[in-house]
Amino acid sequence: MTTGASPEPPPYPAGPFAAGDGYDDRRRQAWMDEIERAPARLREAVSGLSDPQLDTTYRNWTIRQIVHHVADSHLNSYVRFKLALTEERPTIKPYDESRWSLLADAQRAAVAPSIALLESLHARWAFLLRSLAPAALERSFYHPEHQEAVPLWRALAYYAWHARHHTAQIEWVRTHKL
């Protein structure tokens, strides 16, 4: 454990999300590459951490809760992608991630099953993404909380960032608190 007070954790250790106004082949490829590599990066970020260390807090969630959140969130996103690819602008079901983080599995379960889930999920997701024609990313789903249609290219950009963002939170804790 480091001595002295640690600095305040930044809200966006990997920078804030910015999708931009569109995408090209280079950006699409970069996002797909990030989706493919995200589980390995998360596994590396938690590698060697003890149970008490996994319960170290970054702002309002523990490392353990962050890992489980990424698995929950990306599982929901994968389903949203499949719905948008097979239905015309489906309305997705939002979920309360804060309340999910309070469930026993998010607070106390080992992180290995969530990382294994992400590895399998992201392998499928990356395969699906690479099989699509670029125009397929124009398809969208309707998000009732935000009251907007979300094109898949923007969701892809977000979830590539989302994995990077939460992995960076864990890396910050390792550098400044452990």
Question: Would you spell out the secondary-structure blueprint of this structure?
Answer:
Layout: H1 25-46, H2 51-54, E1 57-58, E2 61-62, H3 63-86, H4 97-100, H5 104-108, H6 112-131, E3 140-143, E4 148-151, H7 152-176
Antiparallel strand pairs: 1-2, 3-4
What can you see in these coordinates?
- The protein is mostly helical and 178 residues long.
- It has a single domain, classed as Four Helix Bundle (Hemerythrin (Met), subunit A), CATH 1.20.120.450.
- 58% of the residues lie in helices and 7% in strands.
- It is built from seven helices and four strands; from the N terminus they run ααββααααββα.
- The strands form two sheets. Strands 1-2 form a two-stranded antiparallel sheet.
- α1 (25-46) runs antiparallel to α6 (112-131) and α3 runs antiparallel to α7 (152-176).
- The protein is globular and about 50 Å long.
- The mean pLDDT is 96.
- It comes from Candidatus Segetimicrobium genomatis.
